[in-house]
Design brief:
A 7-stranded mixed β-sheet has the order 3-4-5-6-7-8-9, with helices on both faces. The chain folds into 2 domains: 140 residues, Fructose-1,6-Bisphosphatase, Chain A, domain 1; 113 residues, D-Maltodextrin-Binding Protein, domain 2 (3-Layer(aba) Sandwich). The longest helix has 23 residues. The protein has 7 helices and 14 strands. With 266 residues, it is α+β, with helices and mostly antiparallel strands.
Length: 266
């Protein structure tokens, strides 16, 4: 039987060393070396080298697992694997490129369709958020709990802005307006993994975003649920890992959030 708690500690150590590499490179990073994968979607040698280091380390930790990676350094995405690593080597590349200190390493492990390990290491604050299925969520070994905010009017919400596929942008702006009028504020940090870790840590009461990828959110979703929160797609439970849209909350706010989204989302 696989020891997910022990795995979470091993993955956290690997993510920390990868984050240290990223911070070292940040000191001399040349922004002219970035490449565009698509509209507003940047990649650098730091993303690619970080991913290679993670893939190599994770293959040692669990040799029989497949991979889903942002930069594709592990080859084609895994199919029909018992275990699958989901990796974002540098969540917040745009922040990194512009020297904005909010970016993270994100690694999750699936056993079949189920999230069983999730680690988000926020590089600049050296905060290691770690969760193993059934064992709770932790930040630097302090146990995490979502907030007790009972209603949106007492909440602070995180979100992200779409960088492509703008067909639903007007709908999304209406949703943003709805939340602006019903909460204590909205924040956009530029790193979905960090947003979700902060929901788990009680710094945000909730988070929502669409057109999001599995490697952006997988680890953070487990952090939130293990900290006592709830995660779904926008209008139903669905599959928040691969469904390209996420609502994550302390649980108390979930129905109210989905009601606002439902007004404008089809």
């Amino acid at each position: 039987m696989t020891d997910y708690l022990a795995l979470s500690h091993q993955v956290a150590a690997l993510c920390r060393t990868t984050a240290q590499f990223i911070l070292h490179e940040a000191k001399t990073f040349d922004a002219s070396k970035i490449e565009l994968k698509g509209l507003h979607d940047m990649v650098s040698y730091v993303d690619e080298e970080s991913e290679r280091r993670l893939v190599a380390g994770l293959r040692e930790i669990l040799p029989r697992a497949g991979f889903i990676t942002e930069e594709g350094t592990a080859g084609p995405p895994a199919e029909n694997q018992e275990f699958t690593w989901i990796i974002d080597p540098l969540d917040g590349t745009t922040n990194f490129v512009h020297s904005l200190p909010v970016f993270a390493v994100s690694v999750a492990l699936l056993h079949g369709p189920e999230l069983v390990v999730g680690v988000v290491h926020e590089a600049n604050r050296d905060e290691s958020f770690r969760a193993a299925k059934g064992h709770g969520a932790f930040c630097n070994e302090q146990r995490l709990h979502v907030t007790a905010a009972p209603v949106l009017s007492k909440s602070l919400i995180a979100t992200g802005f779409p960088f492509s596929k703008f067909a639903k942008l007007d709908n999304y702006l209406q949703i943003l307006s709805g939340f602006m009028q019903r909460t204590q504020g909205l924040r956009r940090l530029g790193s979905a993994a960090t947003d979700l870790a902060y929901v788990a840590a009680g710094r945000f009461d909730a988070y929502f975003e669409f057109n999001i990828n599995s490697y952006d959110v997988a680890a953070g979703l487990l952090l939130v649920t293990e900290a006592g929160g709830r995660v779904t797609q926008f209008l139903e439970d669905g599959d928040p890992i691969f469904g390209r849209e996420v609502v994550a909350s302390n649980g108390h706010l979930h129905a109210e959030m989905q009601a606002i989204i439902r007004e404008f989302w089809a």
